Amino acid sequence: MNSSDAKGPHLDVIVVGAGFGGLYAVYKFREMGLKIAAFEAGGDVGGVWYWNRYPGARVDLPSIDYSYSFSPEVEQEWTWSEEFASQPELLAYFNFVADRLDLRRHYQFKTRIVRAVWDEARKLWTVTTDRGETVAATYCVMATGPLSVPRDPEIPGVELYTGELLRAGRWPHHRPRDRFQRADLSDEAADCADRDAYDFVARVRRDRGRRVAAHERTARLRWLNAFACSGQYAAAARA
Ligand SMILES: Cc1cc2nc3c(=O)[nH]c(=O)nc-3n(C[C@H](O)[C@H](O)[C@H](O)COP(=O)(O)OP(=O)(O)OC[C@H]3O[C@@H](n4cnc5c(N)ncnc54)[C@H](O)[C@@H]3O)c2cc1C
Fold first, then answer.
1. Residues 6+ apart with CB under 8 A from 222
2. Which atom of ligand 1 is found nearest the CA of 111?
3. What are the sequence ranges of the domains in the chain?
4. Nearest CA owner, ligand 1 atom 33
5. I want to staple 18 with a disulfide (CB 3.0 to 4.6 A). Which of 45, 76, 205, 233 is the partner?
6. Pocket of ligand 1 from Cβ distances under 6 Å
7. Residues 203-232: pLDDT tens digits?
8. Superfamily for the 11-142 domain
């Protein structure tokens, strides 16, 4: 991010988040000629697709529905290799869009916004980062998504577990993304929920040939449907 963009009291817009929403907001506001500063807690673009990099992570809507349609160049130059793209391809798409539209220069990555205060008299938002910087702007767009912060399950005694607890939404970057390792499963436990769970279960069965116990607090139609109706997932789970 250009420091001249971020400093000073006269920015037009602050955008928080570099997922689908945040990148589009930055692009759109720049097209409108507005002065922008953007912040992302993660190390790069991608939003949930930056964080959710566990084996088996993929879209559950056709990839084409996930494509940006606002830019003819971006639309024409990208071809999805699968009808339901996997996480590495989603991340590649984010990188392509960010490079193609030169969006990264507006962002400060690895920077979390910890406070946002509206000054009614000055008609100004002041946001504070976890690095202690403050930035002010007329508008503040929280493109922070509904799923980017994992919620640890409240399981009594979980603190006694001595293995590594893996979380779908914070999958370690150093682990392979294309398959489960023995180390992911043998004496460790993976916590996942809802839409992540059916990716997990199918992949664990496929990669390790193991029986998998999936525990879900609230039986939801979506979860049941995934196994009852989705040929793709059901076949993978049986394999
Ligand atoms: C595994 C998975 C699969 C999914 N599959 C589909 C699908 O197939 N189709 C579909 O439509 N939707 C799907 N979703 C839903 C998905 O969340 C949305 O479709 C979309 O990607 C959300 O984009 P977003 O820009 O709103 O938010 P996000 O992608 O969540 O991006 C928000 C970003 O804001 C950052 N952030 C949050 N708080 C702060 C802060 N205080 N300071 C700085 N940065 C912050 C986060 O780090 C994150 O990178 C899926 C979600 C998951 C987790």
1. 194, 195
2. 43
3. 11-142
4. 17
5. 45
6. 16-22, 39-42, 47-48, 50, 52, 57, 59-61, 66, 112-113, 143-145, 147-148, 195-196
7. 666 766 656 666 666 665 454 444 443 444
8. FAD/NAD(P)-binding domain (3.50.50.60)
